Here is the input.
Amino acid sequence: MELAYPPFETRDDAGNPAGVSVDLMKAFGEYAGYEIQIENTAWDGLIPALQTGAADLVISSMTITDERKELIDFSDPYANALLAVLANEDSEIASIDDLNQKGKVVAVKSGSTGHMYAEKNLTEAEVMAMPDESACVMEVSQGRADGFIYDQLTIYRNWQLNPDTTAAVFIPFQEPEKWGIAVRKGNQELLDQLNAFLAEYKENGGYDQLTEKHLAEEKKAFDELEFQWFFDMDE
Amino acid sequence: MKSLRKLFWISEKEQAGWAAVLMNMLFVVILWIMLFWISLNAIQVRLDFSFLGQFRLRIWNGFLTTLGLSLSSLLSSLVIGMLCAAGQGSSLLVIRYFCSIYVKFIRGTPLIMQIYLFFYIVGTAWGVENRFAAGVIILSIFEGAYVAEIIRGSLLSIEGSQLEAARAVGFTRRQAWRYVVLPQMAARTLPPLTGQFASIIKDSSLLSMIAVIELTQTMREISAVNFRLFECYLFLGVLYLCLTLPVSLISERLERKFHYEN
Here is the structure.
């Protein structure tokens, strides 16, 4: 995983990997009798890590997409998220269509689903791929970019951190993205184990504990804004 | 038998013939490719370069941008480097310390930090909006410090007594510089300066951090969408070699040429 997305994948104060995904994997380790070793890997290198066998599993809040499915296999979805826009205060963006105009600059994190969405749908705007989130937020708050497309939680947080320079647009403009755990293509045995574990974990209320432990504040904010919660799956 | 031996062996005084050079080079290159191929097979990765055609225009534009960035930065870093090398010898202390602190700061900190700091703080404060321009400025300031050290080093290596000797045999100060110091300086700075140009070309790849659409950023963007990471970076390496290999060949040539003249 890439330890750059609190509170899902991050480090605690002592520098150890921590977060929702870390706890979920530890629980899987106990369930299936594996010793889990976490490797912090840059986002662009996650899929290659699976392909080359450097890692057995990737859990990094990764959305299940058809393009990725051609290269790796995904478990059943365990969470879902919606994209949102962090807009510059002065750029008067009220919807995704306002962003898809000639002369508008859209910042995205390289390789994220926001990046793919922008490449596919925002054909009029100029899409600018940055290596990390903080650079994207900087671009928007300084007015170099008009908007930054990422998931709702990150957008919400950065909007709270920069209330004077940014505005947030939460109107959903696509279907919820489903996050899955990835394995190397054809590793059916591990995939079956994962899916059995995820079903049991849900049954036992594991996600509620995760929410309680890592995401209590966010849950409150999401409820107020009437957003769909990460672990509330449709089915 | 003897001619066959000549294809593989060389004594200290001989120069390798064309056939020998070509054959051995080819042999080494094939060895490297084979090693790489075996590694790729060991991790079971299939390479597929077919997507390159689809993106050829973007890649070409990125290539040109990298070339433009490097050339502009080379020119302005030369100016900065010469001024700074002269400044470090200035008798005005403020100028001397300004130059020496600049060189120490730039050479002592990573380029990536300078890129972020300059672009988001200085650049924003002073209204540098254009990313290409910002990239050239940052890269020139960075490489200028190294150029300054190259020039200062070669100046120091020329003994002061030479200047005195030239004056003693009746050269004017100007003539002494023109006929004694400058030719030696050219011989000592040109080869490392050409090498520095190769560094500039490679260092420019870090400007992808602030989304200057140069070669590396283009490849990052492409690999982010199609996940062909290995293919993209392999091809990226080939393209950079197309730029840096000729430069390092020229550097080697210059080194040999001035070596004889001295």
